[in-house]
Amino acid sequence: xxxxxxxxxxxxxxxxxxxxxxxxxxxxxxxxxxxxxxxxxxxxxxxxxxxxxxxxxxxxxxxxxxxxxxxxxxxxxxxxxxxxxxxxxxxxxxxxxxxxxxxxxxxxxxxxxxxxxxxxxxxxxxxxxxxxxxxxxxxxxxxxxxxxxxxxxxxxxxxxxxxxxxxxxxxxxxxxxxxxxxxxxxxxxxxxxxxxxxxxxxxxxxxxxxxxxxxxxxxxxxxxxxxxxxxxxxxxxxxxxxxxxxxxxxxxxx
Length: 254
Description:
By secondary structure, the chain is an alpha+beta fold. 35% of the residues lie in helices and 18% in strands.
């Protein structure tokens, strides 16, 4: 029995060794299978398949694709077509509005004015605007200086004003009745020189008589010439004549 057991074990190992050699586990066996046979063939690239006794036509050699050249996008200015030259346009001269017609210059003179009247006329002309030019010409030395309150416009108004002045303590006065620019004025004194008239006026102001003024009398008169546009000056002269009654209005060179 022992010898049989040894024989079986030896047979088993012999089969195992044969299997290892056949499988190539020990490196010396012949490889089996299609991949191993192909890899062991000599010059496999020369093998040609024959179909129906004819060699297949070899495919044409592959042609490398030509490189594609991508053109750069043209600049924006280059893509636009060149503009046609434009002929220069002659500048159009602006229309000139016709100049407004100006009125011709004119001159109006007022003669025989007292200092008071001349001052009033100058103030009215200055208020009328800057388009007028005024020239004053004084006569000879006055013979007297008159302290008075200007005309009140009517007898009743002059009497009321005189009563008001008397209540302030001034009794030396009278209402002028003669026709002319000084009619219904209130006379407060007549003096031979300007200094005396100025002192009396100061005394009256101290008593509260605020409307008293000094005017020259006699040859000491003033001539006032006013120059300006004829249309505006005509309207101004009419207005001045209404406020300076009794004053002569004359023409003069513009």
